[in-house]
């Protein structure tokens, strides 16, 4: 759907639309999606980082034990 299609659909319901209004609507929708994604990332990222760090630590301990046994 391009700009003309959007204008045609909105004209059918009696609204005139400018490019500025379409951009504003697009930005509002983008922000509405980005905000929850950033919040979820802020919650999940530290947990994933901690899990990866723990795994690397356990691998290092395992490797050290194997090296000591040889």
Helix content: over 70%
Residue runs with pLDDT of under 50 for 5 or more positions: none
Distance between the termini: 67 Å
Number of strands: 0
Radius of gyration (CA) equals: 26 Å
Instruction: Please tally the helical runs, counting DSSP H or I stretches of 4 or more residues.
Output: 2
Derived from helix and strand composition plus strand pairing, the structural class reads mainly alpha
Largest sheet: none
Succession of helices and strands: HH
Taken together, the total number of domains comes to: 2
* Overall mean confidence score, pLDDT: 83
Tell me the overall shape.
rod-shaped
Quote the beta fraction. Answer: under 5%
């Amino acid at each position: 759907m391009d700009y003309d299609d959007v204008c045609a659909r909105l004209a059918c319901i009696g609204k005139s639309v400018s490019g500025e209004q379409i951009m504003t609507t697009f930005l509002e929708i983008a922000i509405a999606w980005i905000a929850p994604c950033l919040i979820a990332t802020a919650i999940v990222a530290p947990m994933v980082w901690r899990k990866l760090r723990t795994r690397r630590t356990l691998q290092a301990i395992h490797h050290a034990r194997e090296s000591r046994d040889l």
